[in-house]
């Protein structure tokens, strides 16, 4: 049984948080369209001396979704989620937890580290915590530390993808975990959402297709590259953040590097600090998962969800006829 907060979505989809790309416009559009929208807390970066931008974002998202719900009681918005990067270089973590707790964020997504205090803060304000994992060992650790659900990040996902096949990852986790399980990695059609459920996941976790939406905070060239590229254009490298991730080869070429000879970086170099100069240096290197071959145009997020929903319904009908 899914927790009530994850029930009643238009389709079983959580839009994943994406560094730089996901902001309030995209989250509000995703939630209004009926899927969980999310953003990394670190995307809300104020200038020194200014009040925390995260406060303003949370107020705006909550108020706009409340207004939508009052005007549309028959099709209320889906809840939203905030992603916390639980890594030692994230100096803002404690502050951001306090802000999210005070704003009663309903869904907390943690990545790169599982910590009891973060899960406790989520529970204390009535929320749930989902932790993203790339293997079964991390999955067990996350549940031991009090996460309510798991996000299996399989091979082919955008951002910090795992190396494992989604079949292998889901089947190993499902041997012992019957709670909420989300699957991510190259899911870009309604048919693939249904496939994730058939494999044993409850919900699909989708990122890259939402880069090619009007509301995404991404350059027009990045959005167009998502539409033009396919799985063969995705390269895996640890050079840009210190952890293996998937990137668009054309963006690497544009930045003057050879995507076939990138070399590796040390995990110690990973840095989510506010002034990380690397964030600037790599801002033209664009992340994406292998599923983008299914994305051909930049559309409003609501249209992307609409299409996923229509494909999901027709895939279900097709499978029922088997
Ligand atoms: C450009 C980009 C940025 C991302 N940034 C984050 C992030 O800040 N935090 C996080 O937990 N995951 C991040 N991810 C990973 C996503 O949450 C998710 O695992 C992934 O998008 C799923 O695969 P898909 O892109 O193939 O749908 C990012 C993914 C992309 C494509």
Automatic annotation (TrEMBL):
Coiled-coil positions: none
Keywords: Flavoprotein, FMN, Monooxygenase, Oxidoreductase
One GO MF term attached to the UniProt entry: nitronate monooxygenase activity
A Pfam family hit: NMO
CDD domains xrefs: NPD_like
Highest taxon in the source lineage: Bacteria
Similarity annotation: Belongs to the nitronate monooxygenase family. NMO class I subfamily.
Protein name (record): Nitronate monooxygenase
């Amino acid at each position: 049984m899914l927790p009530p907060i994850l029930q009643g979505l238009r389709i079983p989809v959580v839009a994943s948080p994406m560094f730089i790309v996901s902001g309030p416009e995209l989250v509000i559009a995703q939630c209004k369209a009926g899927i969980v929208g999310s953003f990394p807390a670190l995307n809300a970066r104020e200038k020194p001396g200014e009040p925390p931008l995260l406060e303003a974002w949370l107020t705006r998202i909550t108020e706009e979704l409340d207004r939508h719900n009052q005007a549309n009681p028959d099709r209320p918005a889906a809840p939203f989620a905030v992603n916390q990067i639980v890594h030692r270089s994230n100096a803002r973590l404690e502050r951001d937890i306090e802000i999210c707790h005070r704003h009663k964020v309903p869904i907390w997504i943690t990545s790169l580290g599982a910590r009891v205090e973060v899960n406790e803060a989520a529970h204390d304000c009535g929320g749930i915590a989902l932790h993203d994992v790339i293997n079964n060992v991390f999955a067990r650790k996350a549940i031991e530390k009090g996460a309510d659900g798991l996000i299996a990040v399989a091979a082919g996902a955008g951002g910090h993808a795992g190396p494992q096949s989604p079949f292998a990852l889901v089947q190993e986790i499902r041997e012992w975990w019957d709670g909420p399980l989300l699957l991510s990695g190259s899911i870009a059609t309604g048919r693939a959402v249904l496939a994730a459920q058939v494999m044993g996941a409850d919900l699909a976790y989708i990122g890259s297709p939402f880069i090619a939406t009007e509301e995404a905070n991404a350059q027009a060239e990045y959005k167009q590259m998502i539409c033009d590229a396919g799985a063969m254009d995705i390269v895996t490298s640890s050079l840009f953040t210190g952890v293996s991730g998937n990137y668009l080869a054309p963006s690497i070429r544009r930045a003057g590097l050879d995507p076939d000879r990138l070399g590796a970086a040390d995990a110690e170099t990973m840095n989510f600090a506010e002034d990380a100069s690397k964030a600037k240096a790599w801002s033209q290197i664009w992340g994406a998962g292998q599923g983008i071959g299914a994305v051909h145009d930049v559309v409003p997020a609501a249209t992307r969800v609409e299409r996923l929903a229509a494909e999901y319904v027709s895939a279900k009908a097709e499978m029922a006829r088997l």
